[in-house]
Amino acid sequence: MSTDTAVDARRTDTRERILATASGLFAERGFAGTSIRDISDALGVTKAALYYHFASKDDILRAIVDQPISAIRGVMELEPDLGSAAARRQFIADIIGAMADCTPESVAVFKDPQIQAMVGAEISASGITNVLSITLAGALSGTADPAQIEPEHLVRASAAVAAGLAVIDTWHLAFPDTAKFSEESTAYIVDTVSAILER
Hints:
This protein has a single domain, classed as Tetracycline Repressor, domain 2, CATH 1.10.357.10. It contains 10 helices and no strands. The chain is mostly helical. The radius of gyration is 19 Å and the shape is elongated.
């Protein structure tokens, strides 16, 4: 292993430790109730060392929010054939599964009312919901060209994605102490999204 590779691995490991520790503290104390000093003390490092990896507490939160977004992108990069309703249903299940792979601490962070607006803004800024909608609409229209998507298909796909996010948010409110979707909950979310998409 080269020196540069070893340094990159240590840097990545340190970032992951920071995110895991910060997630736990945000979940326990709330985002507003956690300071950079709290995070650095819990890690046993100086604030300067923490600032080497993240410029601010908001940057740490953005990195936590980016974890499920990156997982969704990972599913999309596989470029599955979505030509059938069954394939689209499996794609939706895979997306939900990717989102469900968040740590329990991260899920608790997403439930913090003080940061929900910021989480929503980060998801919106990432463009991931638009990409999902266009991908599903293109599959319904049988095209990879967004300009060729039928308006009805775009409306259905956008409604399906929005409904999926709403159901997930509602699930978090209904089960605040549960970090992972059960198989039944996952199936319900997939059924809801698929029913709107395929109607």
